[in-house]
Design brief:
Blueprint (H helix, E strand, L loop, with lengths): L3 E5 L1 H12 L3 E7 L5 E5 L25 E9 L4 E5 L8 E6 L1 H14 L6 H8 L1 E6 L25 E5 L5 E5 L2 H9 L5 E2 L16 H8 L7 H6 L7 H5 L6 E8 L2 E8 L20 H19 L10 H5 L6 H8 L3
Parallel strand pairs: 2-6, 6-7, 7-8
Antiparallel strand pairs: 1-9, 1-10, 2-3, 4-5, 4-12, 8-9, 11-12
Helix pairs in contact: 5-8
Bound molecules: iron/sulfur cluster (2 copies).
The site of one iron/sulfur cluster has 13 residues, from helix 9.
Amino acid sequence: METTSKTIRKHSLEKLYASLAENRKMYAPVAEADNRIGYKYNPDFSEVIFDHIQSTLSVKNVVFPRVENVIFYTNNKNDSTVTDVDLNKIPEVVLWGAHPCDTAAYDVLRSIFCWDTKDEFFAKRLEKLVVIGLACHKSDAHCFCTSVGLSPDSTKGSDILLVPLTNGDYKAEILTEKGNRILTDFSGLFEPYQDEETKLTHVEQQFDHKQVTQHLKEAFENPFWVENSLRCIGCGACAYVCPTCACFDIQDEAKGKNGKRYRSWDSCGFGLFTLHTSGHNPREVQSQRWRQRILHKFSYMPERNASLGCVGCGRCSRACPVDMNIAEQLQALQSI
Ligand code: SF4
Ligand code: SF4
């Protein structure tokens, strides 16, 4: 679809938010304790923030919840009954104010969850989601979107992208049919865009991701992995804050005859992740797990999914308790 550019005045945003909230759940960023930023369902518009750099957790939980029931079952003496989760109960959600790295991550997740067979849980949540992105006018030293082919105003994954203008209003880029429906339904809130000046941050490019991918082909046995992961404690925080990490575990939980099967986020940084029941572990030390994380995102995914597995949000570096900095490591990997 051809992109349409409109202007939405600052005072009209609240009306748009309220109108959308009438029959959908809103998921928007708010300030939390200890200077943290988090997303919350149905916050009042007065709580919603527009000037954050990055939320602590990403917004992948909207399409890939931390814990998600897959089936329910009952075991009787001679038979079992299985009940599917009713996917029609998944609500319509508007993701409001997510930055371009987070919205682009939905494309990455789609390339994983809909790669060979379509994951119906993920696909249904994505179908019910409208994404109103917010371009970035602030960044910090951990942001590296421009090194992975994105930018502070990348439109990937958004249905509408709001771009801040220097006069305090917003340019609204209408990008998809879902976005177009909102434009049609609330046309009175949008005005013609008059080439007003946008207010965007600058994110310096730190490495060339294509070169990294190329170098990784020969890097499997390189001492780089041991040297650069000795301090990694395998806590998994990097995967839990990451908008593109998609590994999950499946568990059964039963009480008496009744039980449920659910999936929950997991991390390749955990020693248990690859531990076989025999006791053998093909990734027995942390350097092999760190190597897997980087190779998966920057070598295996470009090859298999035609997509990088990283959007340069920098969350893993901000969250790491021992200061492992992924952008620095990728910069170094570019020339090993
Ligand atoms: S957050 Fe840091 S210490 Fe924890 S697993 Fe990731 S790289 Fe290792
Ligand atoms: S690997 Fe790190 S920088 Fe890349 S998308 Fe995940 S959290 Fe963001």
